[in-house]
Design goal:
Layout (H helix, E strand, L loop, with lengths): L14 E5 L6 E2 L2 E2 L3 H15 L3 E5 L14 H11 L4 E2 L6 H8 L6 E3 L15 H5 L2 H6 L5 E4 L10 H5 L6 E3 L1 H10 L1 H4 L6 E5 L4 H10 L6 E4 L1 H10 L15 H18 L3 E2 L3 E5 L5 E5 L12 E2 L1 H12 L3 E5 L12 H11 L4 E5 L1 H9 L9 E2 L4 H8 L4 H14 L1
Parallel strand pairs: 1-4, 1-7, 4-6, 5-6, 7-8, 9-10, 9-15, 10-11, 15-16, 16-17
Antiparallel strand pairs: 2-3, 12-13, 12-14
Helix pairs in contact: 1-2, 9-10, 9-11, 9-15, 12-13
């Protein structure tokens, strides 16, 4: 069990400051609805229905980026998901925000402006330093409790994540609670049968680190994506190199070559590599080629092939637990979704403990009509999921645990 307090421990009739992660794709200046709104709505609805006065903090993008914008549109999406009005004020801790917070009645919900529009929010610093910022010192006295539901941002040392738990009674929201339990299961649970990890995506550096860290917890790794090609390169195949304008492989190869080669050397019997790869043929259709038939990489490979999926499926079906980090292909293009969707189908049909991690991979479940209920947990976290798998500390979780310890003392 986690060492932090949850909503089950929260006193009745509280004014609660709640940190969410509503960071979303922005199209034409408008936030797009996604799984994060749906998940966080559960926490917000529970608090409002219990009669708490609920004030929400969230972020969107970073200063200087195209997706750095106000949260007004986020309030509208969240209101639809919660089934209650969500007020919005374009201020975070100025007079307008303070007046709106003071005016809240029981069961009402208010979203404050983008936390990253505050100078105190972003610079990474210790929780003690963040607790002393004007942002935290101004808002904290207005609240009875702080709830962190932003597991997907828990690897950050930002004021809204680590400052408030030092000065307020602090609790985990339902997303924080369920994400933490599922994503740490690979390190904390004992499984009766084989444990399998599906490794893909474009950020090979992350997943190679996971493979190295989990070598004693995972019985076999099924590889695809950029990481899969880099391991094929280490095994002597002429792939895992940049071609054309793509800049995915060479830099990551140089950075990770020694680690890839050592992992392959030490755990080669546990690592399954693709036997065929898919690419865009001359007619624009999907084409596949056996890896052994590739003499030189002349095109980008966008998915694993059908033979690879057939090779990987038995390993999944006999597993007691399967963890997924990264897609096996560019599933956003329906032509190259076969690998990712085929593997997800096999997991869904298997009676095993399963965690699908990373926002991008979890989108494939929705895009291709799979049922989220067929998986033990579908994570909305990226960086925090990687940290949990590798056993690295999550500062926002540590501050929740420290807050719980202070209350026990």
């Amino acid at each position: 069990m986690p060492a932090f307090n949850t909503l089950d421990d929260l006193s009745a009739d509280s004014r609660v400051l709640v940190r969410l992660d509503l960071n979303s794709p922005i199209e034409d200046g408008t936030p797009q609805d996604n799984r994060r709104f749906e998940r966080h709505a559960e926490t917000v609805r529970e608090l409002a229905e219990a009669g708490h006065r609920v004030v929400l903090l969230a972020h969107q993008g970073r200063p200087g980026r195209d997706d750095f914008t106000s949260l007004g549109g986020h309030a509208e999406i969240l209101a639809d998901r919660v089934g209650r009005d969500v007020g919005f004020v374009a201020d975070t801790y100025g007079d307008e925000a303070l007046e709106a917070i003071d005016a809240l009645d029981a069961g009402e919900i208010l979203l404050l402006e983008n936390t990253r529009m505050c100078d105190d929010e972003l610079p990474e610093a210790s929780p003690e330093e963040k607790a002393e910022t004007e942002f935290v010192r101004t808002l904290a006295p207005l609240f009875d409790a702080y709830v962190n539901d932003a597991y997907s941002a828990a690897h950050r040392k930002h004021a809204s994540l680590v400052g408030f738990p030092l000065v307020l009674p602090a609790y985990a929201g339902r997303v924080m609670e369920t994400e933490y339990e599922a994503n740490t299961a690979i390190a904390t649970r004992e499984f009766d049968g084989p444990v399998t990890m599906v490794v893909g995506g474009t950020k090979a550096t992350d997943v190679i680190g996971v493979m190295d860290a989990l070598d004693d917890r995972v019985d076999r790794f099924l590889l695809g994506g950029v990481a899969g090609e880099l391991f094929l390169r280490a095994a002597g195949h002429p792939v895992g190199r940049d071609v054309g304008e793509r800049d995915l492989f060479d830099e990551q190869w140089e950075r990770n070559r020694e680690l890839i080669e050592s992992v392959l050397d030490e755990r080669g019997d546990a690592i399954r590599l693709a036997s065929d790869l898919a690419y865009e043929g001359p007619d624009g259709e999907r084409a596949e080629v056996p890896v052994d038939d590739i003499g030189e990489k002349e095109t980008g490979y966008l998915d694993v092939g059908a033979t690879t999926v057939a090779d990987y499926e038995p390993a999944i079906r006999e597993s007691d637990a399967v963890f997924v980090k990264g897609a096996l292909g560019v599933f956003e293009d329906e032509r190259f979704a076969d690998g990712t969707v085929g593997i997800l189908d096999a997991i869904a049909e298997t009676d095993c403990f399963s965690v699908v991690g990373g926002g991008d991979t979890s989108r494939a479940i929705e895009m291709y009509g799979l049922s989220e209920a067929d998986f033990s947990h579908v994570s909305i976290a990226g960086g925090a999921y990687i940290r949990a798998l590798t056993g690295e500390p999550l500062p926002a979780v540590e501050t929740l645990e420290a807050a719980a310890e202070r209350r026990r003392d």
